[in-house]
Structures are given as structure tokens and as C-alpha cells.
Amino acid sequence: AQSVTQPDIHITVSEGASLELRCNYSYGATPYLFWYVQSPGQGLQLLLKYFSGDTLVQGIKGFEAEFKRSQSSFNLRKPSVHWSDAAEYFCAVGPPGGTASKLTFGTGTRLQVTL
Amino acid sequence: GAVVSQHPSWVICKSGTSVKIECRSLDFQATTMFWYRQFPKQSLMLMATSNEGSKATYEQGVEKDKFLINHASLTLSTLTVTSAHPEDSSFYICSARAPVQGNTEAFFGQGTRLTVV
């Protein structure tokens, strides 16, 4: 069965510092990969996704992620964090090709930004 | 992008009563919607897949008689928590898939916080 691991439950970074959130997955084939952000009491907003092609994907709000097949990883990065980036971040996987496929989420990483 | 709207955003109900949560796709048709549950400081757990015009598919361990799902139209799915108890208090989120540039993408509602007292 597929699974998603986000090893870091909580990360604190200073505003302006770089950020990397880790995500590892277990899947029989190359899945569709997603990063979502959730602000307190809110739904989820898609930051970026990987379906195929270039393994470095660009998303909204200055985020990017790199798919590494050999490491089964899809880490999220941002060169310079802003205070407004403080939120919960979820990595998710879905089966490739499905038009109604369900997502499996990691446990999330809570990002705190200090000024 | 596509918009999914959930209503209400929050609700408080008495133990033993039923609560209905609506999930609407505002600018696209969704034959399939998904209902998730999120406990505090935890991830989203898929409860069921809602299929328009047919019965929902529930994940293992989810009581179908307690969490009634109806997907009567291509833009509306409802989740009814029947005979709610305090342990049902949680954050419920729906999502719907919409075509985006040759693929499909999941769009999420803003969630409903249910508190059972």
C-alpha cells in the first residue's frame, strides 16, 4: 500500500532563511506527487504538483520541489521564507493516470517563522 | 482554478443530533468528490469517495450508517453525521477533481469544523 512520510513534525526558520521540507513516499510505480499548504482552520491550497517530465517543479508563492526517483523523495524548498509562509504543509501522493484517484497524505510539517 | 465551497464553515451541535455538511463545485461538474477527516495536529484521512448518482465508497473502518453521503447532482455532495457524539468532533474537508491542462487536480473546500457537545 502507498504511504507518505514527512519526517519533520515541526520546523522553525528565521524570516529570509532558506527552507526545505522533506517528503518520502512508498509506491509501486511513480505516483503523482503534490504539496499542499493549510493555514489554521482553512482548507488546503495546492502549492505544486509533479506528474511527469522535468523533475524540478515550480509552484506558487516561490516554492519549488524536486522529484528524486532513486530516493523516492519529493522535497519542498523555498530560497527565502516570509513570515506569511507559517502554516502546515502536507505532501501527498496519488496513483498516476486516474481521473478520480484519491490522495494519500503525509502527517504534515508545521512551519514556524521567526522574525 | 476551480472552486469548491463547503458549508457551513463551523457548526456546534448537541450530542445525538444529526449534522449535514455540503460540498459544492462552483464552476465545474464533479462526478467524484472525496470526504476527509482531520483530527487536531494530524493529517487528512480519507473517509469516503462520493460518486454522483451511485452509492459512496467508504474506506475501511468508516461507518457508512453514521456518515451518510449523498451525491445527487454533479455539483453537490453532502455528508451527514448522524447521531453525533463528542468523538465525532473534527475538521471535515471535501475535495473534488477537475480537469486541468490535460490532467486532473484535486481542489479542496475550506473545511467544516464540527464540535459536538
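Chain B has a mean pLDDT of 91.
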